[in-house]
Amino acid sequence: MTGRVLPYDVVGGGPRRALVLHNWFGDRTSFAPLRDHLDQAAGSWAFLDCRGYGEAIDADGEYTMEEVAADALAVADDLGWDTFSVVGHSMGGKAAQLMLLDAPERVRSLVGISPVPASGFPLDEESWALFAGAADEPGHRRIIIDRTTGARYDDAWLSALVDRSVQRSSATAFRAYLDSWARDDFHERVRDHPARVLLVVGAHDPALGRETMEATWLRWYPNARLTVLPDAGHYAPEESPKALAEALETFLAD
C-alpha cells in the first residue's frame, strides 16, 4: 500500500486532537466501547488500523513498531494535523514512543493504555511459545486474554475477543509484530524524555500493570503519571470504557 495512508476514521470535531493506536489482539474496532463515552465536542479522535489488521488486513509491510509509527504520522499528515497527542494501547503504546522520537515537535503528549515499554517485554521460553503460537492457534489467544484480564470473564466474552482477533488480523502480521514489540529495545533513547505522559493500567493486568510501569515508564519519563483502573485488566477500552474516557479527557484537557 505504498503511496497511501492506512484506513482510519475520526470521531468528534473538537480542538484536542489524538491519534489512537490499537493493541496486538485488536484493530480499530476494539475501541468501539470507548468511543461511545468520548466528548466529541471537545476532541477529535483518529482511530487507525495497523497493516495486517482490520481494513488493512491485506496490506503488505514489515510489521514493525517503526512502520506503525511512520504510518500513523502519515495519517496525521493526511488529516492536516500539525500537532496532536498519541494514545497507544499495549503494542500501540510502544509505537507511540517512536512517534514521539521521530516527530517531537508534533506530539504534544502521550497516553499509554497498558503500554509496552520501550525496552520491550521479556518472555521466558514457555511464554514465548505461547505468544508465538497464538498466530495460528486461537486457543493460545484465549489463554493470553484470560490471563491478562485476571481470569474474570466467561466463555462468551473471551470467545468474542478471540474471534474478532482471528477474523480481523493477518496471522503473518500478528506473528511478525510480536518480534518487534516484545524484543526490540530502545529505552535509552527515551530515558529522561520531557514529554507529558499518562499511563492507564488495569488493576487486574498481571503483565503490564502498576509494577511494570514503575520499573520502566515511570523511571524513564520524568513527567509521567499513573492511573490504575480498579475494574479493568489489560483491555481497558472494552472492560472499563467510561472510566478510561474520563482519564483520557482529563489529561488531554490540561
Can you describe this structure?
GO terms for molecular function: hydrolase activity. Residues 19-241 form the AB hydrolase-1 domain. Keywords: Hydrolase. The chain has 254 residues and is an alpha/beta fold. The protein has one domain (8-253): Alpha/Beta hydrolase fold, catalytic domain (Rossmann fold, 3-Layer(aba) Sandwich). Helices cover 43% and strands 17% of the residues. The chain is built from twelve helices and seven strands. It has helices at 32-35, 65-79, 91-102, 125-133, 138-148, 155-167, 171-183, 187-190, 210-215, 217-220, 236-239, 241-253, and strands at 8-11, 16-21, 43-48, 84-89, 107-113, 196-202, 224-229. Strands 1-3-2-4-5-6-7 form a seven-stranded mixed β-sheet, with helices on both faces. Helix 2 (65-79) crosses helix 3 (91-102) and helix 5 (138-148) crosses helix 6. It is globular. The mean pLDDT is 97.
Distance between the termini: 37 Å
Helical content (DSSP H or I, runs of 4+)? 40-55%
Could you please say which CATH topology applies here?
A: Rossmann fold
On the 0 to 100 scale, the average pLDDT is 97
Radius of gyration: 16 Å
The portion of residues forming beta strands comes to 15-25%
Shape: globular
Give the count of helical stretches.
12
Briefly, what CATH class? Answer: Alpha Beta
Largest sheet: 7 strands, mixed
**Alpha-beta content class:** alpha/beta
Give the name of the CATH superfamily: Alpha/Beta hydrolase fold, catalytic domain
Cross-sheet strand order for the largest sheet? 1-3-2-4-5-6-7
- Give the topology string: H per helix, E per strand: EEHEHEHEHHHHHEHHEHH
How many separate structural domains? 1
Could you give the count of β-strands?
A: 7
**Shape-level CATH architecture:** 3-Layer(aba) Sandwich
